[in-house]
Amino acid sequence: MTPVRVLIVDDDALVRTGLVMMLREAPDIEVVAEAADGQEALSALAHTDVDLVLMDIRMPHFDGLSATEMIRAAPRPPEVVVLTTFDADAHVHRALRAGAAGFLLKDTPPEQIVDSIRRIADGEPVLSSSVLKALIERTFTGETAARAAEARDWLAVLNERERDVADDVGSGMTNAEIADHLYIAVPTVKTHVSAALTKLGLSNRVQLALFVHEAKSTGAGVAAPRRGRGNS
Questions:
Q1: 29: burial class by Cβ within 10 Å (0-12, 13-18, 19+)?
Q2: pLDDT in tens, 118-144
Q3: Which helix (H) or strand (E) holds 134?
Q4: CATH, domain 4-126, list 3.40.50.10490, 3.40.50.2300, 3.40.50.980, 3.40.640.10
């Protein structure tokens, strides 16, 4: 099996060293480059084949948010996983909207970080339902109604089964859990997720989860949205 090629971006050399040492223990993960800020990360990506970037947010000179936006805007970009010390950092939402596949707390146990990297590399972004809820509650204060109405309009373009799957994605379920819940096969779940992402113009299931939470933020269910732009 080809190892997951990882770029570690953090301004703290001790953090980078610790991550490198930890990931070296995983035979299917290879750290191919390190960077101390976003600009160094972009330079490394220009010369190195990378599958996944572990990106710190708060760095001098060129922060991780700007770097994430630039990386994800490029053709065929690597996945980006945000590293943070706060589970409800206001900046994390911006990174997720830019297309980050999820985020990990810096005090996450090593085995969970390794497992998360494997899951994300396999196309299953990692964001726990509790953290997602904290992000939504912090970010949408004061503008909930407008965002919820817009999200429900957009979700109306999905068919009933796609909305069911989207709702479960918003609850933090894995593909296997969704398959069990809806009594369908895992490949079918992946097909519905892919269709929903395409229709909504989103990059990954984390963005879909955020969209679902926006739509439900005034108490409305995803399965019964308002008239959508695609159904006018």
A1: buried
A2: 888 887 767 655 556 666 565 555 455
A3: helix 129-139
A4: 3.40.50.2300
